[in-house]
User: Which sequence fits this backbone?
């Protein structure tokens, strides 16, 4: 293979997620007019790096890993399975501020069921990344469809976005609701109605 003499080689890139974060945090502190060496801030860059690694650990997880072997053959159960009020925390990719709330996840089995604890784990795989709520909702629904090929999936997410509460419009009491429906949840109105009725009927929620 021939190469052009004198051609510049492309810069080597670090593997995804391996670049240090702390030095960039230190630069931000300086840009804000702070002294990153004062006692209260000396360890802040390292703390922020550790926090961001934790808050975005979903980049290093996969649905297959968190589900493992917790998929079981079961031809007998063909009714809706719902896990509601799954708490989650995520980071808005536009401002890197948190948004958080609850996810309600339902599916109707078609010969296979999934361990109940795996549904919250699937939520976390995608929530622990830089996200927008709309995409998060779709990713959860699609992941469950891929994992167990059910008759259908319904996902509804209710969240508070600090990018709306702390800045911008500064509306502290607003909630954003998104939904994603797949399979029979999309094609059958009665299934969608049952899903929303079960979600609305959770303890402490007004009708």
Assistant:
């Amino acid at each position: 293979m021939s190469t052009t003499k004198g051609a510049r080689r492309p810069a080597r890139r670090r593997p995804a997620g391996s670049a240090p974060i702390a030095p960039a945090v230190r630069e931000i502190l300086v840009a804000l007019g702070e002294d990153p060496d004062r006692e209260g801030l000396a360890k802040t860059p390292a703390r922020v790096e550790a926090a961001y690694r934790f808050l975005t650990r979903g980049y290093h997880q996969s649905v297959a890993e968190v589900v493992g072997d917790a998929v079981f053959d079961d031809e007998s159960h063909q009714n809706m399975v719902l896990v509601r009020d799954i708490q989650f925390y995520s980071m808005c990719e536009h401002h890197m501020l948190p948004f958080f709330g609850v996810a309600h996840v339902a599916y109707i089995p078609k010969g296979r069921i999934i361990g109940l604890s795996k549904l919250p784990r699937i939520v976390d795989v995608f929530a622990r990344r830089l996200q927008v709520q709309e995409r998060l909702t779709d990713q959860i629904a699609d992941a469950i469809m891929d994992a167990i090929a059910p008759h259908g999936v319904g996902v509804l997410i209710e969240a508070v976005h600090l990018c709306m509460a702390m800045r911008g419009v500064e509306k502290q009491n607003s909630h954003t609701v998104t939904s994603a429906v797949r399979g029979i949840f999309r094609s059958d109105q009665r299934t969608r109605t049952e899903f929303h009725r079960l979600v609305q009927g959770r303890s402490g929620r007004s009708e």
User: Anything to note?
Assistant: The chain has two domains: 22-54, 68-200. The CA atoms of residues 22 and 48 lie 7 Å apart.
